Amino acid sequence: MDLNRLRYIGDRPVGPDHPVYVTGEIGINHNGSLEDALAMIDVAATAGCDAVKFQKRTPEICVPADQQGVERDTPWGRMTYLKYRHRVEFGTEEYAAIERYCASRGMAWFASPWDVPSVDFLETFDPPAHKIASACLTDDELLARVRDTGRTVILSTGMSSLEQIRHAVDVLGREKLIICHTTSSYPAPAPELNLRMIHTLMHAYPDVPIGYSGHEIGLQTTVAAVALGACFVERHITLDRANWGSDQAASVEPGGLQRLVRDIRTVEAALGDGVKRVYDSEVPIRAKLRRVGLETAVS
Known about the structure:
12 helices, 12 strands, eight-stranded parallel β-sheet
């Protein structure tokens, strides 16, 4: 194994020859409900995920000034976009409850900060990592603040050019970096997933673990990403894809998440190490079926 491609999220190694690190992204699919967030933590833990991930924003910074007063219909009535962003945002009390509950379920948790004050907020919880959302890949100020925490950084690369990715990597540094191939459509159609980009990123960054953050409908393409070498996988999760919210349709429901983690574990076990050998289970079959050849070959 190339030790240069080994990173840690908490005490879990992430890289080749280690179990795929599976993250269930709750994001804002909780719609501001702590009860729903805790229920999704249960779903992720039951399925065998390693972590759950949230999104943290300072609405006054992240919502453009010309959008803040725009009204929209929501499940809680008609309100301005700024008020809506506050309505679905968790604060200290909720994240403290999330931290306690994740600890009780043996789950790690971290988040995607969308602005510098959100990094400062998350740092009070001593997270094992920070995630850079694809939308934030070109925000040098945010990247520099996340880099300065000294924590593992997971970089999603959706809607970005190779040149933009190179610049973000230069800002973040490689020492504690994990890069995820991503297509930022919600949901992303299969012809646009371009999973071979996983190999492109492996060649471009041979000293960085490469993962996959998926927004597609279905499970098979995420499992295929693991077969192509992704050592970190993230999928949005939800209690019900019919729930209100822009990320719900591209999310995985509880039963699907269980199947996804099961299939990831099966595929990573089946990949093996690439060394040809004769297995003990093959020896009696060889003795029974092979007529010609050296039957005493070392297994």
